[in-house]
Amino acid sequence: MMVNSFSQFESPVFLTIPLILLALILPWAFYPSPSPRWLSNRTLTLQNWFIGRFAKQLLASSTPKVHLWATLLVSLMLYIISLNLLGMLPYTFTPTTQLSMNMGLAVPLWLATVLVGFRNQPTLSLAHLLPEGTPTLLVPVLIIIETISLLIRPFALGVRLTANLTAGHLLIQLIATATLAFMSIMPAIATLTSILLLLLTLLEIAVAMIQAYVFVLLLSLYLQENS
Amino acid sequence: MPQLNPAPWFYILIFSWLVFILIIPHKVVAHTYPNPPTSKTTESPKTESWSWPW
Q1: Helix, coil or strand: residue B27
Q2: CB A197 within 8 A of CB A172
Q3: pTM of the entire structure?
Q4: What is the per-residue DSSP string for chain A?
Q5: How far is Cα B31 from Cα A3, in angstroms, rounded to an integer?
Q6: A17 bridge partner residues
Q7: Which end of chain B, N or C, is less surrounded by CB atoms within 10 Å?
Q8: Which positions in chain B touch A75 (Cβ < 8 Å)?
Q9: Which has the closest alpha carbon to B30: A34, A86, A36, A187?
């Protein structure tokens, strides 16, 4: 078994217990159940504020039919952003670097948006495959192109999240290794590299949040298009 | 790339969906929101001056 830079992404198993179970279940200890008190503690207030503002912002420009998906989309956002941000801590495992999990989320949810569209308004959903105002000669080509772009959406959704997080974690590991290697030989370069590492970590925290948002936003857009 | 190893794919899929369905929506839906405050209307209420019935 070759140990390489990608080894950090192997689903860890300790004493035959797959640790991804812990990585998936323990983050929810950070989200206490809201109490019926009028004024709750800071954690609950912040989470309440975040969930409410996010739901409003995501669903403000959509029809009431799309609002039926509110719980699903907000849960998805909370899921991905928590897993991503907790993965930024050292020595943690990020389940969203696993293609299996991201494709497992992306394909069923995308398929659900497509099926909802085809069930409720089949003509309009099919009409999305041909943009308005296309010259007649281009019609067959464009239908093929639009179908391909429709079918590639779940893969794009899943792979985008996986690749962004994997690349970020990989870069952090590589630059940290470089910093450590430089410390004994050229401490000045090591200092520069550690500043680079700090900036990269800040970027990755931003990427973690943005990628979660993009996932949910695109899904809600596919839904709005189809409902 | 270890992510392409098909061995843990199925159980990662199952467990991530189980957590997504069983744990999170319960916590999300438990957050309640009071009604948003309405702005006060500028019209003053119409009050009849009390006329004593004598």
Answers
A1: helix
A2: yes
A3: 0.86
A4: ----GGGGGS--EETTEETHHHHHHGGGGGSPPPPS-SS--HHHHHHHHHHHHHHHHHHTTS-HHHHTTHHHHHHHHHHHHHHHHHHTSTT---GGG-HHHHHHHHHHHHHHHHHHHHHH-HHHHHHTTS-TT--GGGHHHHHHHHHHHHHHHHHHHHHHHHHHHHHHHHHHHHHHHHHHHHHHH-HHHHHHHHHHHHHHHHHHHHHHHHHHHHHHHHHHHHHHHH-
A5: 45
A6: A14
A7: C
A8: 20, 24-25, 28
A9: A34
Inform me whether the C-beta atom of residue B52 falls under 8 Å from chain A C-beta atoms.
no
Using a CB-CB cut-off of 8 Å, the residues of chain A touching B35 are none
Encoding tokens for residue A204? 């990755």
pLDDT digits (tens, 9 = 90+) for A134-167: 888 888 888 899 899 999 999 999 999 999 999 9
The confidence score (pLDDT) of residue A1 equals 55
Give the ipTM of the model, two decimals please: 0.85
Terminal Cα-to-Cα distance of chain A (whole angstroms):
49
Please list the residues that pair with A13 across neighbouring strands.
A18
Residue in the structure block whose two tokens are 């609002």: A67
Length of chain A in residues, anyone? 227
